[in-house]
Every structure is written in C-alpha cells, then in structure tokens.
Write a structure and sequence with these properties.
Elements (H helix, E strand, L loop, with lengths): L7 E2 L5 E5 L4 E4 L6 E8 L3 E5 L10 E3 L3 E6 L6 E6 L4 E9 L2
Antiparallel strand pairs: 1-9, 2-9, 3-8, 4-7, 4-9, 5-6, 5-8
C-alpha cells in the first residue's frame, strides 16, 4: 500500500562517515526536512542533529544494520554520531516526506 507522503531522497545527495568511539560529524546539504539514516555495521550508533558531542548515553540510537527515517529542522547541515567503538558506517540521505 502506498503512502500519501513517501520519502523522496535528493538525487546523489547521500553522504557517509565512519562511526567510532569518538563523536564525529557528517555534513550534508541544507534544506531537507527528513533524513534516512542507515547503519551499516555491527553495533548501535547514537546520533544527534548538530556538530560534535554525540553521546552513547543521551542521543538517539540506530540499531546495527538498520535504516530509519527521521524528521529534522530544514536548516540542518550536520549529523553527529558515535558508537561504543569502531566497526560501523552511517549513511545520511537527505530528502523530504516520510
């Protein structure tokens, strides 16, 4: 069954970063109201909107080898992410809809 508000990814706009035990920033183009975050790896990633300081105890978790849609403020250009250690990559696909 189709939805009235399907996610529409921006063409060629996906960016990625390696996620480790130190918070790192992934920069994307501004203007998206939704992102698809895809965790390719064997551990939980914790993420937040904005630069630096993502926390494994306070931020939004994304399970290993999973993909989820999240609403974000349209001015967002950075997603900060951290994990317990090395072993995962986070793919950020900006777009609109849900």
């Amino acid at each position: 069954m189709s939805s009235l508000f399907n996610f529409k990814a921006r063409p060629q706009a996906t960016v990625s970063g390696v996620v480790t035990g130190v918070s790192g920033d992934i920069t994307m183009a501004a203007g998206a109201d939704t992102v698809r975050l895809t965790n390719i790896g064997n551990q939980v990633i914790f993420w937040k909107v904005g630069t630096g300081g993502a926390s494994v105890t306070a931020d939004t978790p994304l399970l290993p080898n999973s993909s989820e849609l999240f609403s974000i403020p349209p001015a967002t250009t950075v997603i900060a992410a951290i994990a317990a250690g090395a072993g995962s990559s986070l793919y950020v696909t900006p777009g609109s809809g849900n």
